[in-house]
Amino acid sequence: MRFMVLIAYSMLATVATASGVQAQRLGVARAFDLERRGSYADAVEAYGKVLADSPGDVTALLGMERSLTPLGRIPEIIPLVRNALAEDSTTGAIYAIGVRAWAQLDQPDSLEVMVVRWAAQHPDEETPYREWGRALLRRQRRDAARDAYLRGRSALGDPSALAAELALLATSEEDHVAAAREWALAAHRLPGYRASALNSLGQTPERQREAVLRQLRQDTLVVARRLEAELRAHWGDPVGGYALFVTTLPDDPVQAIQIIRQFLEQLRSQRSPAVRRVQGMAYEGIADRSTGPQASRMRLESARAYAEGGDQESARRMLARLAGDPRAPADLVAGATATLIDVLVAEGSVEDAEHRLEEFQGGLSGEERLALRRTVAWGWVRQGDLGRAGRLVASDSTVDGLALAGYIALFSGDIASAVDRFQGAGPYAGTREEAVARTTLLALLQPIEADTLEALGEGLMILHRGDTVTAVAQLAGVAESLPDAGGGAELYLLIGKAALANGDMSRGEAWLRKAAAGGTQATAPAAELELGRMLLKLGRREEAIDTLEHMILSYGGSALAPQARRLLDQARGGIPRI
Amino acid sequence: MRRRSFIKQSGAALAAVSPLGLGAVRYLGEAGPWLVVPMDDAQDDHLKAYGVTFRALKRGVKCEWFLNYRDGSFLIPADDATVRDAQLSGVTTESVSDGALLSIRGEIAGANMEAVPLEKAPEVAVYAPPDAAPWDDAVTMALQYAGIRFETVWDSEVLGAGLGEYDWLHLHHEDFTGQYSKFFLNYSGTAWLNAMVAQNESMARQLGQPNVPALKLAVAESISRFVTDGGFIFAMCTATETLDLALAGADVDLAASYADGDPIDPNAASKMNWDRSLAFENADLVLSPTVPQFSNIDGHQVNAPARRQSLGSFTLFSFSAKIDPVASMLVQNHREVIPDFYGLTTSFTRGTLKPGVTILADEPGAHWVKYIHGEAGKGTYTFFGGHDPEDPQHQIGDAPTDLSLHPHSPGYRLILNNVLFPAAKKKELKT
After folding, report:
1. Record: contact B21-A565, CB cut-off 8 A
2. What is the pLDDT of residues B90-109, one digit of tens each?
3. Does B21 contact A at CB distance below 8 Å?
4. Which site from A223, A304, B384, B396 is most exposed, i.e. has the minimal number of CB atoms within 10 Å?
């Protein structure tokens, strides 16, 4: 019987405790709701009821702090903090409320006492000093805040303690050198601070940057030199920055890869050639520390970055290594081979490119092989070796192959074959611009009676290679030898436009006038339109209007007439010149 | 099949078989001494067709406007200058013999059509500040694109030499209440608004006016006299609404203090004299200087988010070409329904229109109309709501409209109808 009574009492006590907790939770919820609705005075009352039953309830105490602040009644929190600490002297959050309250009341002695009591409870923690400093900073007392942080550092016996706080404080005072010193300490202590350090130091005004770099260079910590390297890269010296950066990498490849990736991430948004070269180096660095497909993929990335950065030599080195790696995945090898051949052709190593193509063509699809053969053939065309170019595309019956064969024939002076090949290629080979260029050439070539005209081919090849001055000089001689209706006018139109594009206005105008005077129903309106455009550009408005009017009245059915009318409207001021 | 549709299709069929390019002369049968400038869908450039006709008139050539014949075609003698001009402009013309013309006249006589002689190119003036952005006024753009010569006049010309030498005056987005279109609300401090204020204040001082609202009232009254003395005005956008508000409020302070130094008269509404206005009456005024509206004349209230109405489309009315040729001229078009477009004043509420106003276009079912015409004294006025027919939501600073991309714009055609109609030979209306 006695045993039964004990059990009953025990059950009643449990139920009572449970209902007390439940009531407390409800009280906090109600107070929070009042606070959320902005009824701070009612919230204070509600939180007060909870704290009366449970003085150490941190949730209620924090709510009370939030509600008293907008009412300007923060002194009322002090007795509540004391009550709370009397019940629970170990919870840091209660001390933090006390620290903030004393700081707001501008009572430095009481504030210090609170921090000391808190630190005594937790002698290994930075938090009491961090809260102390923060509370003082809210009162704009920077010197006192610095003293608080330094006192914490001293008390903890750790020269890197509270470094991030001191760095931010230094930054706010625009002392970027001191900030650099502290950020290095912070990042050394906790690597996660690296990104914050870079972000903060990255904002350093230009005039202080050298001093910041000097400070980091003098630092004995590896992380300081790494910060220096990354800041150099960020501030416009990616190559110098990376050269320094690699000296800071650890031997452990996994750690090194992670650090290199962080460096790459910093440069992610930049695409200048120098940055692309550095990205190439960084990818190469990862590849050298990796194995298997990862290494191959990084080499391909590295090659692309080098190529885009203009370092064809390094790109070629990466690709050659990748292409020659028997363990590399087949798709990467194919991609690398294609990129390598592009790189080799671009740098003029066409012989080498052709050699590579012959070596690797077994691993390429038929279409890829043909496309690369055309790439190499264009390389030979640019070098003037039309025979080798022709042999490479001799068996290529695609429209792109025919278009290229047309150019090879044209540059050889074989007009008849060129016309035949261009007609075969039709409008489908290459881009729209390439198709328009072929059509323009066809218009030039078709009226020419001769089957071969080496001087024309040679001149057009020089023009294709970008030497406009030499090309137009040679082609002008050819144009003089051709009758107007036999391709002469078309050739004058071509070299007139080329001369204008090259800034040679007087000769361009003269040749366009010859094309307009001797041209056919297709060439003359094109020449007059071009002439009108040029005259308008040069500010010779009246002449432009006369020319355009002549074009419209003489060739009203031309497909170019609407363009001429629009230009005429602009010349007359009838529509805005946008 | 309705006659109009039949004619449209006939014209289109003729155009389709023509082997010539844009602006070419097409031959209907044998080549003749006349050119018909078709204004239906066979036309390659509707807007420049007005320019070709205007320039022919300028050269002293007598032309005719065939109202409702192929959507308002023109007849011009086939002289070399006109043929050349049409070809340069890309305007479609059709060569017509005397016999074919006789047949056309027979068709016109038997239908709701009319041949209106055009005798003299009107002298055209545009009211705009001297340094007005050339591409910020639909009428200026239309005139320049069509190649119709015009003079620019501003306050000193209007109040000085007057408008006597002109037949036709265009007003666009001027605020005749002198409050800078209430741009102070959204654009205060911008360089262009500062320049506009400085320019207007300087002009007021130069012309001996105490402030800008007083200056604009004097200009509005001068324009009103120009109309009653026999002139034609064509107004768009804010000029429509504020011209009438300024005239009716001549004895009332309608301007906010930023414009004239003292606040708006709180009893302004009761002091308005609507006998002085041209088209509107009994409008409710918006007196708050912080609300970017003037009155309830505008049906769309583009700058009042709570009352702003969305854009629909407006329909042109049909008139009897023989009985009411003026209204017919103003609505000649190859489209009957036209997409609407905003302006500071977009439309006109029916309730504020004076009883004698002719509605030329409205949005069916809506309480606003778009395009109105009326007589005042010996002259007439035409008001067209909105800013730019091809830029429905035009904003300050937007790129200018390039009319070579809109050669068939039906909205711009309405503007150009207004330019040519003063060229029509006046004759007594049949009753």
Report:
1. no
2. 999 999 999 999 999 999 99
3. yes
4. B396
Number of CB pairs, chain A paired with chain B, less than 8 A apart:
55
| Strand extents, DSSP E, B178-310 | 232-236
B1 at interface of A, judged by CB pairs closer than 8 A: no
Closest to A185 (Cα-Cα) out of A217, A153, A154, A161: A161
B154-169 per-position pLDDT tens digit: 999 999 878 989 999 9
Does the beta carbon of B152 lie under 8 angstroms from any beta carbon of chain A?
Answer: no
Q: What ipTM goes with this model?
A: 0.73
Q: Which two tokens stand for residue A358?
A: 């012959």
Q: Let me know how long chain A is.
A: 578
CA distance A522 to chain B (A): 14
- CA distances (Å), origin A450, targets A387, A417, A561, B112: 22, 12, 32, 66
B144 chain-A contacts, CB cut-off 8 A = 573-575
Mutation choice for B interface testing from A528, A553, A575, A577 by most B CBs within 10 A: A575
Q: Using alpha carbons only, what angle is made at residue B193 by residues B187 and B197, rounded to the nearest 5 degrees?
A: 130
Strand pairing of B379-384 and B232-236? parallel
Chain A residue at shortest CA distance from B143 = A574
Q: Is B89 on the interface with A (CB under 8 A)?
A: yes
Distances (CA, A) of B11 to B6, B28, B98, B110: 9, 10, 19, 19
Q: What are phi and psi of A347, to 5 degrees?
A: -90, 0
CA distance A58 to A81: 10
Tell me whether B126 touches chain A (CB under 8 Å). no
A521 touches chain B (CB under 8 A): no
Asked if A575 and B403 come within 8 Å (Cβ–Cβ), the reply is yes
Helices A468-481, A454-464: inter-axial angle, 10-degree rounding: 160
Among A557, A558, A566, the residue with its CB nearest the CB of B404 is A566
- Could you tell me which residues are beta bridge partners of residue B115? B66
DSSP assignment letter at A268:
T
User: Inter-chain contact A552–B23, Cβ cutoff 8 Å?
Assistant: yes
> A568 in contact with B at a CB cutoff of 8 Å?
yes
B253 pLDDT exceeds 80? Answer: yes
Question: CA nearest B55: which of B137, B127, B150, B138?
Answer: B150
Q: Looking at A79-88, A260-269, A470-479, A506-515, which range is the least confident one?
A: A260-269
B170 strand-pairing partners:
B126, B234
Whether residue B189 is predicted with pLDDT greater than 70 in this model: the reply is no
Q: What is the pLDDT of residues A285-299, one digit of tens each?
A: 999 999 888 888 899
CA distance A329 to A296: 8
Q: How many CB atoms lie within 10 A of CB B390?
A: 18
Contact A377, A404 (CB under 8 A): yes
Residue B22 and residue A561: Cβ atoms within 8 Å? yes
